[in-house]
């Protein structure tokens, strides 16, 4: 009876995970720093969903005691990696400072090493459930699991300090997702301390349902944070490093030169923007650099550093702001004509870029602002 339930649950779990991966791959986010972070963070969930789908369907080929060892291996070997990826997906859109990406790479390596250790123990050494090595690997998993939960809570607390307007959302929506992962991790430990068929079945059920709920709710996670944070400028932590006096002087001199160059570029771009040359179709960074008399590389670096985006997105942002002004003051003009006026090739491209930046279509934005 339990074997039949396992078989059915693993099919449901595997198919659901593949569908979740496709769903997250297809959804769009506003073209803001938080939105782009959220889109990149979805890759963690997509990888996690794909791995879980493959493993769940792979369980179907196992049977008897071999199946029980396979589930135990998944809980101790792959569950830490899955939980880490989901925690990184929660933390990536809201990290503040320059240390997070280094932390992320380092702990992906640690977790993969734990996964490899379990793989060697279960498959190459034919490890048995309940041995001292088994319990040691379980202790490593428990430590990493607690550490991941604690790390996310610290990152979210720091975010709340900088952006207190997000506090209410985190309490109601984000923290429950973290709590859900905590329940999954806790029951994973229980299922491996008492690795009965019943406990393993309960774990897979909880894990599958929690995973589906997490993925569906994550679709709203970055979008909601983007709406709270209107300005596309996340505050950065100041990181103190020990450097020699000469290096400090050289760095200061380079920074001053860079600041002076950026001030010149900024003034030239301000004049260029007042002329609304960005409304011309087929505009390229080469043309703009020639018009304002600035090296193309310097201009590209200035846009990347100051606006946290590339040239094309910056131009599209200026055009969309212009389109919003037209919709506000000239409500009788159609969207296709507005798209042409602000420099887009066609209405479809205009609508796509508008939705990426604003999170809604031009027509919906117009209705929200009581425009006909």
Automatic annotation (TrEMBL):
One of its GO terms (molecular function) is sequence-specific DNA binding. InterPro entries: Homeodomain-like_sf, HTH_AraC, HTH_AraC-typ_CS. Pfam families: HTH_18 (PF12833). The chain crosses the membrane at residues 6-29, 41-61, 73-96, 108-126, 132-153, 174-194, 200-216. Keywords: DNA-binding, Membrane, Transcription, Transcription regulation, Transmembrane, Transmembrane helix. Residues 269-368 form the HTH araC/xylS-type domain. It comes from the Bacteria. The keyword DNA-binding applies. PANTHER family: ARAC-FAMILY TRANSCRIPTIONAL REGULATOR (PTHR43280), HTH-TYPE TRANSCRIPTIONAL ACTIVATOR RHAS (PTHR43280:SF28). This is Transcriptional regulator, AraC family.
